[in-house]
Amino acid sequence: MAGTNPLAAARAGIRSLPSGTEVAAYATYLEAQRAVDHLSDQGFPVQQVSIIGSDLRSVERVTGRLSYPRVALAGAASGAWFGLFVGLLLSLFGGPVGTGQIVFSAVLFGAGFGILFGVISYALTRGRRDFSSVSAVLASRYSVMVADAEAGRARQLLSGLEGVRPLPQAHQPPAPPQPPYGQQPGYGQQPPYGQPPYGQPPYGQPPQG
Question: What is the pLDDT of residue 107?
Fold first, then answer.
């Protein structure tokens, strides 16, 4: 029987939300990661731990203003790096031609192509996007979930973690109060004379649907 691939098993487990108890919540992923690292250092079975991000938001950070000189410079830099990589590969099969000549030619060609591609791409935007940015999807809350059987131990271990400030626990509405067993009106005793039994309609009236 073939062994189970741990990576495949981990991917299969992500197809559904993990169940368990929230033992801590943090504002950043790095804080949640540090909490899990702390549990691992204490010998906690981290295979029973999950980090769940909630309240996802798309964040785009503007890094600067675009212009033709800046676009050309960025294109030249990226093209030169690509040309350097191609030149080093070609130099392995260059034969009698010098390695330096091949690499230098590839870098120049890559830089020129990068400038041309960057300028044309920027011109096609027609000024609709004159800034550069980076995008990411972030969560405003990262919950550390642990299997119910190990939740108490995880809370105890995380109470000794210093340098991070957990968020307040998610509020869970209390369950509606239930009357104690055997304390319903009329339980175990006869109703007064002329009164219907508990839960029954008055005499002479049809039951309500």
Answer: 93
